Amino acid sequence: MIHATIKEIGENAVSEQEPILILFDRTATTTLRNYSVIQKITSTEKFSLKKGDSLFFDQQEYQIEHVGRLANENLNTVGHVTLIFDYYSEENSIVNGLYLTPHQLPEIHVGTQIKYK
């Protein structure tokens, strides 16, 4: 299991109209930070997420429906992934995305613990 903590939430990072969260580690630029959730990954384990794995925001559990082809690589290099709380469709697939169910944004705040399992 890989652990991370939310350190910062950009002023435009959460929108009820867009069921996505964009995560980066602390290397994100100032512009990106306005639209991102900054996470500090505390595990040294490498990401190798796959369909059927779980993601937790504190006690809120989500199932991974699809892993974009660049998601694990981007998580391992810059702590970046786009979390999509909507249905996966191949023609609109985001290559660095994790498609999650249930299809609702989690409640997050600075200090929220993220567990990738």
Automatic annotation (TrEMBL):
One of its GO terms (cellular component) is cytoplasm. InterPro entries: PTS_IIA_glucitol/sorbitol-sp, PTS_IIA_glucitol/sorbitol_sf. GO terms for biological process: phosphoenolpyruvate-dependent sugar phosphotransferase system. Gene3D superfamilies: Phosphotransferase system, glucitol/sorbitol-specific IIA component. GO terms for molecular function: kinase activity; protein-N(PI)-phosphohistidine-sugar phosphotransferase activity. Pfam families: PTSIIA_gutA. Keywords: Transferase. This is Glucitol/sorbitol phosphotransferase system, enzyme IIA. It comes from Enterococcus hirae.
